[in-house]
Amino acid sequence: MILDVFASPAIRSYSAAAGIIAGGAAIGGILFFLLLPTLIVIPMSLSETNYIEFPPRGLTLKWYSAYLSDPDWMAATWFSLRIALATTATATITGTMAALAIVRGCLPFRTALQALALGPLIVPHIVLGVALYLTFSPLQLTGSFLGFLVAHTVLAIPYVIITVTASLQRFDPTLELAALNCGANRLQAFFLVVLPNIAPGVAAAAVFAFLASFDEATVAFFISDVGGKSIGRKMFEDIDFNLTPVIAAVSTVLVATSLLLMGSVHLVNARKPRP
Amino acid sequence: MTNFISRSRSHRLSFRRLSSYSARFYSLPTSIVLATPLIAALAIGFLYPVLKLFALSFSGGTLAYYRRIVAEPLHLAVLTGTVQVALVVTVASLLLGFPVAYLMARLSKGPATVVGACVFIPLWTSVLIRSYAWVTLLQRNGIINELLIDTGVTDGPLKLIYTQGAVILAMTHVLMPFMILPIYSALRALPADYVRAARNLGAGPLRAFVAVTLPLSLPGVFAGSVMCFVLALGFYITPALVGGPGSMLMATLIGQQTTVLLDWPFAAALSTVLLAVTLLFVLLFRRTLSLSKGLNSVY
Questions:
Q1: Which long-range contacts link A183-186 to residues 24+ away (Cβ below 8 Å)?
Q2: pLDDT of A104-148, one tens digit each?
Q3: Residues A32 and A113 placed together within one structural domain of the fold
Q4: Nearest CB to B42 within list A97, A154, A163
Q5: Interface pTM (ipTM) of the complex?
Q6: Which domain holds residue A190?
Q7: Does B284 touch chain A (CB under 8 A)?
Q8: In chain A, which residue's Cα lies nearest the Cα of B237?
């Protein structure tokens, strides 16, 4: 019978091997699908032609120099960089303080506050974008540094709270009590005992906050205007109306920045064992 | 105020009492001071704007803008279409993501890191850049069309971009890591002994998978699915760039009302509906979502 043939060990191991190869090829295809869009921007940014070709015809850095010499792109880049750095500071400080209050404090509406602080992750960004535009427009804060700082701080805080809360929960609270017992005041206990112990978490939180602002495009789309445009808004416009390889060059720079920052956070966190 | 410790009192606590003592030893005033910047930021940058949005959507003290949503079949079609697309994207992410998560959990450290990199690299690439990449891949003279023509599958370029399929493809790509990572954490926490025990008791590899691995991975599957679904409901950038007029979602409809038609009160009403639908699903599934846990596995 046919079934007996399939039951023989040799055939079974053949079909098992075939199964493994087929499964491996399928998963390889899925992984290729995951990586392709990130990797494709690199050859596109180096290609001589306006559109991408395989094999690429000629290598050039002209799209990078076009990016660096275009005043609009440069203005958007510096504007975004300033916003992202300021957001990193405000969100990291605000979020770390809040995480301390949430983990160590005895606030009456602690869970509600935590849920509310994580809200900007759940609320669709387009809703926030429209809401913030409606708020900023009468105050003439659209396209302004301050407007972006407020918006991006709110968007970045959830990442800080999640990361710092997790570090605080891993840190033994009796160490802080010991410092207080030994005569340290609250600030000394925080800066000399708590902060050094949660520093990797706070550093990771700062990286998340930076990228949450720098890579943000939906809210930026609504609160930008002619006078102040973030790099995300500028990219969005160019993809829609002016699709040139300059966008690929900008993308490559941004991808390299993100991967470098997130990769280093990952390495730092991977080195110490997590309970 | 049972969990308040003042400095003067704390040294009198015996070690035993201290070790069983609650970790919440910051006094109420300290806690309030620490939480004040957060509350201020949320009030200015989150609560007030959202309330302003509500107020505008009810402007004139009427439900006129909401009536317009219900009266126009197109708007209702967009709303149900959005839920459908979110569902399809979630199912596609699950079907494509589960094998990746399973492989990552089963491989030894080195190869698992390689697979992990394939998941984290797209996650760390901004959504805008990934959507841009899909635009260039799918456009008329893009790589996929070129490949199809070169291999003789079609004679002329196919219309790939600005379609519903393109939106689903690109959104699945963007949201897949949010599915893979929670499933991976669930599978990772599963002791290898369980499967080994099932095999020892006579189960084949398939039976062991269906009876042991799959049910125990379900918390990760639910967390990932809810996360994907909720994020897909409000997606703007990807459908705005990759989709066309035929593949309108709630978010792109709101975008059109604000940027093209400048009808802000109507956009506010649509935004309120989108927010309500999102919150409804979050509340329905809040047990499985566990936002901070899910995100901890992602970041």
A1: A186/B30
A2: 988 888 888 988 999 998 899 999 999 999 999 999 999 999 999
A3: no
A4: A154
A5: 0.86
A6: 65-271
A7: no
A8: A218
